[in-house]
Amino acid sequence: MTWLRALRRSAREGLRIERAGLEPLVALRAAAGVAIVIGLSLWLAGPLVAASSAFGAFASGMATFQRSWRPRPVLALVAGGGLAVSTFLGYLAGAHWWVFVALLAVWAFLAGMAWALGPTAGIVSSLTVAVMLVVITLPTSALSAFGHALVIAAGGVVQAALIVLFPVRRWGRQRDALADAFAAEADYARRLRHDPFAPFDPEPLMTARSAAVITDRQARRRPAALRGKRVLAERIRPVLTSLADPTVGAAAEGPERDRARELLAAAASVLDAVARAVREAEPVRVPPEAESVVLVEPAPEEQLTGPARRTALRLVALLSEAVSSATGPGGSVSTDTAHLRRPSVPELLPLAVRTVRREARFDSPVFRHAVRLAAVTPAGYALGAALPLGHGYWAPLTSVLVMRPDFSQTYGRSVARFVGTLAGVTVATAVMQSFAPGPYPCAVLAVVSVALMYGLMRTGYLVSQVAASAYVVFLLGMAGSSWTQTVPDRVLLTLLGGVLAMAAYALFPAWETPRLRNRLADRVKATGRYAAAAMEAHAAPARGGREAVRAALLDARAAALAWDQAVARADAEPVRGRGLSRRAADGADAALSAMGRVPMLMEAHLPAPDAAPVPDAAPFARHLRTATADAATAVRERRPPDFAPVRATLEAWPRSDADRIVRRSAELLMETLDDLEASLRPRPRTRPARRR
After folding, report:
1. Following DSSP, what letter does each residue of 532-556 receive, concatenated?
2. Fewest CB atoms less than 10 Å from the CB: which of 430, 437, 488, 600?
3. Mean pLDDT computed over every residue of the chain
4. Domain residue ranges of the chain, discontinuous segments joined by +
5. Concatenated DSSP letters for 103-133?
6. Across residues 194-198, what is the average pLDDT?
7. CATH T-level fold of 513-679
């Protein structure tokens, strides 16, 4: 992709406005926290302290809207504490220009490295740098600086207290994540009726798993409806796939296929009902027509035989368990009390240090982002101070808020911030010029602006920046700054900050395109381990390989998601040398998707510990694991993979009716390996014929 096309695409992404579900009560609660802090500070200490405190409450409220499964009060308190520390250090160094610039560079680098801990930590850390740039201009002494830092921390306390005192949809995000997983499986069941090989996006299941990772304190308060149902959703998915697959499930045509379609349609209705019940915290209401098909005992499966019949009975049992599990008052309580444990904040510190240290290498996108941030922030501050515009901190402020570790978001947000700033400042300026409001009306207008920003945040960065820009203009107007001192300068400096951010990425990029081969190699290895684990579970059932299969499945999902995200980022980058052709990438993706489907079919038929083993599956699994690991190395080294040992093992596997499903699964795996090998084989270059 050329630079011009990449810039146009990034600009469109940044300016896009999405239709999203709004959370007005949550937005009003966060805006009320800002209003309380501004009102009390304005009444007790005056406009300057009110402006300082407003930034703390605003940023703490922003932290609670981030996509994190941590409790919202904890996010508000951590954000408020970080803001207080950063601003107080900035106050102490602000009297000495060079000391402050050095501190700014170090703090910006640390904020950039915080992206190693996830987007929430990165965004909150960026806010600490932004607030440091703005509020150090307000106090005049160390004691005053300490007071401003306390007021900023109080903003986080107020936001946390409001969340505790006025909860809105307790466990709502966890409920939505689990409900989305069931809804995705319902959609998958419907698509399987028409396409037995329909793909399934595992991201909803991965999100539900992330939402289920909770602290010990949360585990004691977790609703019964959220206990055990995620595991049910995980177990239902391979059963749906196995029932629809003509190889190990219902026949491709005839009465068996008609019965399978009927069961899949009913399963979709039941799964939708479970999703609705989880989301709304109400009992499951299954449609009567679906209940008569899948929730009766004994299940009428006379049209199905063999493995298809066993799969159908398994599906009926799992759906019945999902319906009868706890859904609120009066429901049966699940016996599943185990939970995926999330470390507390103190326990997280050593883990965070190790995670950040792993990213401290030159080729890491997070490290490069931190270096760019550490260079651009002080450079923008110095340029803003040198230009005769006033309010020079707006340039580095813009850079800090728009810079991200990847190209598309940085460029898209730069364009969206400039357009949003221009629109928001224009509207706010018109109000200030027309009515010349005093401190208290400005405070009211600022609260209204921040409420709009919180409420419309999910619709896109452009819309939120319109409201945020108006909020800052009204806030500075409350503190006594006239519009002539803020509006024109801020627009020009915002443009400068965006240009600096984009130039920094162009000069010191972290392109995803050259790393595509590494991402593909990781996926090849992880998918091979998943398939080998499923084979080993059938080879030796007494060893109990379910946990190994589950762990390998999670690794394969993570590798597939990382590959998909890498391809999406690479498609938006202005890099010509991909290191991996589009044909090879598409072919490998299709082969690995088909390969991942096979162990999922086997997972639906995992044998009991006392079942008869399939000894011939053991050497196949061993060679498969080794060959895919070698293939991953070959992909990284730009060599074609070789799966001859796996092929030879399959040819030596004697045919037997006792292990028909396992043998057929091995054949399907070999077919996908052949497709993978063909997609990564170099194509011969053909020279055009010379004209005579």
Report:
1. HHHHHHHH-GGG-THHHHHHHHHHH
2. 430
3. 86
4. 3-169+368-507, 173-222+228-336, 513-679
5. HHHHHHHHHHHGGGG-HHHHHHHHHHHHHHH
6. 92
7. Methane Monooxygenase Hydroxylase; Chain G, domain 1 (1.20.58)
